Fold this sequence. Notes:
α11 (518-530) crosses α12 (534-553). The protein is elongated. It is of the alpha+beta class and 613 residues long. It has 15 helices and 26 strands. Residues 1-42 and 371-386 have low confidence and may be disordered. 25% of the residues are buried. It is 23% helix and 42% strand. The longest helix has 20 residues, at 534-553. Strands 4-5-8-9-7-6 form a six-stranded antiparallel barrel. It has a two-stranded antiparallel sheet with strand order 17-18.
Amino acid sequence: MTCSKGRPLRAWATGVSACVLVLLGAGIGAGSGAAQAQEAASAVQDVTLQDVTLAFGETVLKAPRITASGTRLSKDELSALLKGGAGESWPARLVRLDAASLAIPELRVERTAAADATPVVTYRDVVARDVRAGRIAELTAAGASILVAGGPQKGTGTYGRMRATDLDLTVLARLYGEPGDGKRALQRIYATFAVDDVAYVDARGTAVKIARIEGRDLSGRQIPATWTGALQAFTGLDYERIAPAERARLMVLGADLAEAVSVGALEATGLSVQEAKPRDAFSLGVARLEMTSAGLHLEDITFAGIDGAKARLARLSLDGFSLAPTVAALRKLAALTTPPAEADLRLLTPALGTLALKDLSLDLPAEPQNGRDPVRDPARDPGDKAAAAPMHVGLRDGSLNFAAPRDGVPTAGRLSLSGLTLPASAVAGVPGLGSLGLYGYRDLDLALVADTAWDESARELKLGEVSVSGKDMGSVRINGMIGGIGPEVFNPDVAVSSFAMLSATAKALDLTIENTGLFDRFIAAQSKVLSLKPEELKQEYVTASTFGVPAILGNSAGAKAIGTAMGQFVTKPGTLSLSLRPKNGTGIGMLEFSAAPTPAALFDRLEVNAKAN
């Protein structure tokens, strides 16, 4: 199956398993008629056909010689069975295919519809063993080569040994050539599939290699347009000029195809991509890629760029991903009589599930200074700042989880990063973190968590946890509840969402600060700047907290409680906790916050609980 007018690298790399389909009839055009199994009356024999040409729509297969061993078909019967044209459907013909083996020393596959190039795939030493009623127990090929001679798709490639088991040719013929209602049970195409030593180089010099690809349990379902019709509909399209009716048809076809294919598992090992052009040179490697119905997993990912950038990721996984919301949205959008709005397109968001990564290492080149590039300028002065070492960033574990989307918006999400290491200089301009280098931190080891959930029925957004913590620093954690959050808050129209936020209410806020070293370093650094002893400076902060903070906040009982707790924290830096709750139980609105004449007017409406230990 050769697709579209996109770069062949993309089509080839994502569809390697399709070479089995090409090999034995992808794109087969079928007529009407029921499959009738029958055996020829002749005795078992060996039959050889010369110069066989089979045309299946835009795909042409050519074999100088085909030898059927241990078959009951005569030479004329086998020739008639493989001959194309009007008459019996291909499923009806293939079900009569019966032989101990079929041997094809060379099989050439061409695509005749290409306007600016002629893709040619040539398979060597193809052998099909135990062929019964159109099903092949084992199919092998010694290798193959692919050539795109001209045009923007120009490139060459090779495959090593290929093997498939329990391949059902009649199912292939039905899927590609016979329409169905798209609702029947899936039919298995093959049990296993493997290909070794895949390599391809395109016209840019971009080279792709895969040591081995394995797949199992590929199944399909017949759809109204047939697989051939659906795939051809997406070939050579100018998506910016599609008429509304054609756009609707393509949406339906896309949904049909998405629901018509099921892959039990697909695994690729030893994947590498290299760009040879000097200005764009890079290399990407993946030791192992596994795709199943449950998700996608990649192991040992490496990257290197021309400017010295390097990255390594031990594992990347995506679990719980589903296109079901996207398929449903495609069918819904196809029924529109007007072009889809941005809110409509947002419905195409799939169920993202959980994205997780482990052991990320990233080395970035130093930024050019004094007009020089520290990587590309070989004549740089070793003492020049431009020769600074690359910046190293690491991450031990990270995960991003989204609940199933509602109207294109995930109703819950959680971000978790642990072991985030980077130099303090990297956050020099970040508010709240920019001064860490002044407090003696050279390298940072941070952890971040953001956990939120939206309850549409209650119109509430829960902040389960929003926290930042650092090794030898401490942590800041916020929990809370915001009311008045309805679907309109997530409207893609900024004017609508901004206006809706005016109805939001603060219903709860909890703040916890824990010190494990940062406050002590802050006091030490400030003491030197102010020429004070650390204990003297702490006493000044205690006085400012105990008396100054309540004065600023209006001297309410709650304000005094906050000031007292802050003073206790400064005296003995440990944990500071603050809890705020509206006295009315329903929350304080955004407009009320902005309209409050003084902080005291707000604190009078709050129940405040503050403590330090």
